[in-house]
Write a structure and sequence with these properties.
This protein has about 190 residues and is an alpha/beta fold. Helix content is about 30%, strand content about 20%. The protein is built from six helices and nine strands. It has helices at about 15-25, 75-80, 85-95, 105-110, 160-170, 175-180; strands at about 1-5, 30-35, 40-45, 50, 55, 65-70, 100-105, 140-145, 150-155. Strands 5-2-1-6-7-9-8 form a seven-stranded mixed sheet, with helices on both faces. It has a two-stranded antiparallel sheet with strand order 3-4. Helix 5 (about 160-170) packs antiparallel against helix 6 (about 175-180). The longest helix is centred in the N-terminal third of the chain and has 13 residues, at about 15-25. The chain starts with a strand and ends in a 6-residue tail after the last helix. InterPro entries: Class_I_gatase-like (IPR029062), DJ-1 (IPR006287), DJ-1/PfpI (IPR002818), Prot/Nucl_acid_deglycase (IPR050325). It comes from Aeromonas eucrenophila. This is DJ-1 family glyoxalase III. Pfam families: DJ-1_PfpI (PF01965).
Length: about 190
C-alpha cells in the first residue's frame, strides 16, 4: 500500500516536499495527487514554487491507502476542502480506521470544515487555533491521536517532525529513527 498526499494551487511547498521526501526515505510509496479544479498535474504552490504531481485526483486507480496526508497553505487547503473526491477519500479513510494527517491550516480548513476531526486531540497553525474547540486543542508541534488515527501539526517549521510521526505510525519507531538519523534531526 501507499500514502496519498493531496495538493492544490496554493498548498505550502515546504510542507509538501518535506512530507514526500521523508516518506520516500522510509521506503514508503507516495502518490502526490493534484486537486486542481482544471485537472492539471502541475501546481503553483503558496510561495510560487512549481510542483508536478504524479496524477490528478480523478486519475487515481486505487482508493486503498495506508494514510492520506493534507499539507496546509492557502488557498491550497481551501481548494482541497472544495474537492468532493478528496473529501470522499478522507471520509472513507476515517470509516476504515486508517491514518489521516494534516498540518498548518488543513486541520481546520479541510478536516474540521467537513466534521472529520471527531473527538481527536489536534493542533494546527497558531493562526487557526482559536477555531478549534479548547477541549481538543493542543499547542504541541505535532500531535498523534492513536484512537482517531489522526496526526496533526503546526506548520512548515514542524513539517519534518510531522512526516517522521507518519513514518512512526506506519512503520514503527526504528524506521522513524533510521530516517531521522541521516537527516540530522534532533
Amino acid at each position: 500500500m501507499s500514502v496519498l498526499v493531496l495538493v492544490a494551487p496554493g498548498s505550502e511547498e515546504i510542507e509538501t516536499v518535506a512530507i514526500v521526501d521523508t516518506l520516500v526515505r522510509a521506503s514508503i510509496e507516495v502518490v502526490l495527487a493534484s486537486c486542481c479544479p482544471a485537472g492539471q498535474r502541475q501546481i503553483r504552490a503558496s510561495r510560487g514554487v512549481q510542483l508536478v504531481t504524479d496524477c490528478h485526483i480523478d486519475e487515481l486507480t486505487s482508493r486503498d491507502f495506508e494514510a492520506i496526508v493534507v499539507p496546509g497553505g492557502l488557498p491550497g487547503s481551501e481548494a482541497i476542502r472544495d474537492t468532493p473526491l478528496a473529501i470522499d477519500l478522507l471520509k472513507e479513510q476515517a470509516l476504515l480506521c486508517r491514518w489521516r494527517a494534516a498540518l498548518c491550516a488543513a486541520p481546520v480548513v479541510v478536516l474540521q470544515h467537513h466534521h472529520l476531526l471527531g473527538d481527536a486531540r489536534v493542533t494546527c497553525h497558531p493562526g487557526f487555533q482559536a477555531q478549534l474547540p479548547p477541549a481538543q486543542l493542543s499547542t504541541e508541534r505535532v500531535v498523534r491521536d492513536e484512537a482517531n488515527r489522526l496526526i496533526t501539526s503546526q506548520g512548515p517549521g514542524s513539517a519534518i517532525e510531522f512526516a517522521l510521526e507518519i513514518v512512526r505510525a506506519l512503520r514503527g519507531d526504528q524506521a522513524a529513527l533510521a530516517v531521522a538519523g541521516p537527516m540530522v534531526m534532533p
